[in-house]
Request: fold
Amino acid sequence: MKQLIMIRLNLSMCLLKEDLKDVKEALSQANLALRELRPFTSEKGVVLTGKKLSKKRKDEPHETFKESKALQAKAYFRLGSAQLAATDYEDAVNSFDKSAKCSKEVDLEVEAAVVRKLNEAKKRRKEKNQKERKKFKFMFSSKDEED
Reply:
C-alpha cells in the first residue's frame, strides 16, 4: 500500500510539471492517495478496516502511524500544489496548513517547501481578494462617488 501511495504522490508531482501540466489529474492522484491513507491515519495504534472503515484493528505499531502521517503530509502538500496551480488559493492554503499539522502530529519538522508554498498561496489569495474588492467597489459605486 505504501508503494502505491508513493507512486500516486510522485505521479501527482509529475503531472504538475510544464511538460505534462494536467492539474485536474494531479488533484485526482493526490486525493486518491489521501483516501488510501485514511485507514492508517485516524488514530495512533489503530487501523480502520472493513468496507466502510467501521472496524478497528488495534495494537498497530506506532511506526505505522508515523509513516502514514508523513505520507499524509506529503499528500496534502501535493494536493495544495495542484490547487495552487489551479488558482484555488483558499483550498491550497487549507491543504498546506493540513500538511504542516500532519508533520507536527508526529513530531516531524515542517519542511521549508511547505512553508514557502503556504506563504505563496496566502499572498496570491490576498492579491485575488484585493482585485475582487476593487472590482466590486467599482461596479457598485455611483457616478457621484466617481467625481
The helical segments are 2-15, 23-41, 62-85, 89-105, 112-140, 143-146. The domain at 2-146 is CATH 1.25.40.10 (Serine Threonine Protein Phosphatase 5, Tetratricopeptide repeat). The chain is about 75% helix and 5% strand. Residues 138 and 144 are 12 Å apart (CA to CA).
